[in-house]
């Protein structure tokens, strides 16, 4: 089973909102693989996922520490959602280095998001979301986009590919497409 959704998001805040909406469909054991150029919005999307899951700590790029775990915070009803394991595979140079992270040991208890994970972590889970983010290069005026500074501006095209039986009955297209009501990723979010 493989389904695909393509959404255009106008800016960084819409990308975070899309992550929050996506988080509503994630559960412990889910693997999300993010791909995209520098500045495409991978960490921005993960910030939204972290906010949607209700995890502790600032979600920032784990480029130099490779992996960071964000424990879930108690919900108003006292329950907790899954933790978030946020990995940046950009600096990894071999499958042995990926294996050394021991991601499979926490996979069942957490939502695992791996930036730059394509080609490295698919073997962790037959069921996963593969999310590609792209940004047009250059503004309408012809000015270059600064890859290191998201700055909140800039449209992104997000392609979500659902792989495996886990996603067969999850209505991602209905829930995540712009105009989907409460889950509209481009709708303003209070707070």
From TrEMBL:
InterPro entries: P-loop_NTPase, T6A_TsaE. NCBIfam families: T6A_YjeE. This is tRNA threonylcarbamoyladenosine biosynthesis protein TsaE. The lineage of its organism: Bacteria, Bacillati, Actinomycetota, Actinomycetes, Micrococcales. Gene3D superfamilies: P-loop containing nucleotide triphosphate hydrolases. GO terms for molecular function: ATP binding; metal ion binding. Belongs to the TsaE family. It comes from Cellulomonas gelida. Residues 137-157 are annotated as: Disordered. Coiled coil: none annotated.
């Amino acid at each position: 089973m493989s389904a695909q959704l393509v959404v255009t998001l106008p800016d960084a805040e819409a990308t975070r909102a899309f992550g929050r909406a996506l988080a509503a469909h994630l559960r412990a054991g889910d693997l999300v693989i993010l791909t995209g150029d520098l500045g495409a919005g991978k960490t921005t999307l993960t910030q939204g996922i972290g906010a949607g899951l209700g995890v502790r700590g600032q979600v920032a790029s784990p480029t130099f520490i490779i992996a960071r775990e964000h424990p879930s915070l108690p919900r108003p009803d006292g329950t907790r959602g899954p933790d978030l394991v946020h990995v940046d595979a950009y600096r990894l140079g071999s499958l042995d280095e990926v294996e050394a992270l021991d991601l499979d040991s926490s996979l069942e208890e957490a939502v695992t998001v791996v930036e730059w994970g394509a080609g490295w972590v698919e073997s962790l889970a037959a069921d996963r979301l593969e999310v590609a983010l792209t940004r047009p290069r250059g503004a309408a005026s012809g000015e270059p986009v600064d890859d290191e500074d998201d700055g909140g501006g800039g449209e992104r095209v997000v392609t979500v590919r659902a792989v495996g039986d886990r996603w067969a009955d999850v209505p991602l297209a209905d829930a995540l497409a712009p105009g989907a009501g409460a889950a509209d990723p481009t709708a303003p979010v209070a707070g």
